[in-house]
Queue: 3 jobs
Job 1
Amino acid sequence: MGERGTFQRYGVMNVIRTTAALAGLLCSLSAAHAAQTAAQKPSQSNAPSSAAVASPPPGYVIGYDDQLSIVFWLEKDMSADVIVRPDGKITLPLINDIHALGLTPEQLRIAIQTEAEKFVEDPTVSVIVRAINSRKVYITGAVGKPGPYPLTGPTTVLQLIATAGGLSEWAKAKDIVILRNENGKLTTFRFDYNSVHKHFRQNIELKPGDTVVVPQ
């Protein structure tokens, strides 16, 4: 074979090698893209998410809009993330509707376990509180940001006023009132912002449903 034939043979081999290398590169890129797409695709499972867990305060009972995770051990298809509906119920796979409003997490766990025993043997269930949206206090009137605020922990009147942006220029700081409804009975508490440093007992700890009224 002459010099020209040898050159052509080596040229063909180089083309083959280059083509093979490109094919391998394309396969690698395709596999990487598929893996990335799979990782970004949202899960369709009923299994509870790994969202943050709330720390219920002492005496906590489940309320409207609270977010819960119901976790069944070895029965993942029955597990679910749920929100307490306006009718006070939650819906779970297989079990369907079950009442949750006004129950402690332990009471709800027992109720769910009792219902689950109709479908599976010796169910083990946990109730995890993800977010407490039912415990709110309200502040209205002459403050920076009036409205409802979540009561996620012990909160005094002064702390709520600070959270709401403080008193406005025209607020009647001596005439603030806290309204509390307990068992259908309305109770009022007076709060003098100007003298709270002398009479600190008036800086009461707020309860869910309390309304702080700041007149102007």
Note: Residues 27 and 33 are 10 Å apart (CA to CA).
Job 2
Amino acid sequence: MHRFLFPLLLAVSLLAPTVHAQEAPAADVEEQMSDDAAPAATENAPAIDTLALQRLRQENQRLRLQLQEAQSQAPLPLLSEEQKWFAVGGSVGVASFLLGLLVTRGRRRRQWLN
């Protein structure tokens, strides 16, 4: 059974992007169909578009300012994520070494006594 599992997994992983890629154009076609079904653009449509664009730009600017304020107020971390993992790994290594010394120390004495 395990003999057929790897080829099946390989086939599914190779076909997954193509299936996903085929879904995207279908959504675009539906969007185009809904746009075609809408009535022709009216004269005030460009004005509405520019108003909406202006509002979006203002909101974008406001959100950027909020982000800058939040980032300036947040304290900087002492260590980065990579440095934390390095410190944890080093600690585990040192602790394992010391534990190994403590555990094997008794065995060495027993071997010399015999």
Note: The mean pLDDT is 75.
Job 3
Amino acid sequence: MGKVIDKEFLRQEYFHLQDTVESFDEKSLTIKAWSVTLSMAGIGAAFTAKVELLLLLSAGASLLFWLIDTSWKTFQQANYYRIREIEKYMKGKVPDEEFNTPNITTAWSVGWRKTHFLKIMFWHHVFLPHALVVTVGSSLWIVDLFYPVV
């Protein structure tokens, strides 16, 4: 007798994964908001307090937020591996005998190993606004070395 897959359980797993993926987008927006708020406040404070090192510190803070945002995106992308497995199964492209359920943790681990941190880091919806703030903050700091503006 062949393996029996509970399609209702699989449907619940699929929608749970979709909700999880969407929750990562909310986290990414929060990370971006904190990045812009803190980094731009630091750049503004550099001009107000006349402390040029704050320009570099703000650029560094934005870089750290960029790395965190990229990490969250890699975690999010790892979930797509299982989502695609379920979709292939539901379309009849994978026989019951070859399909594992439940399998979220194992599939996530495989998906995470297949993600490429540096590639994701330069997706436009990941590097913006972080790269802009890193560039502005460090550029202002370099300009300030030669032509003090702070």
Note: The two ends are 77 Å apart (CA to CA).
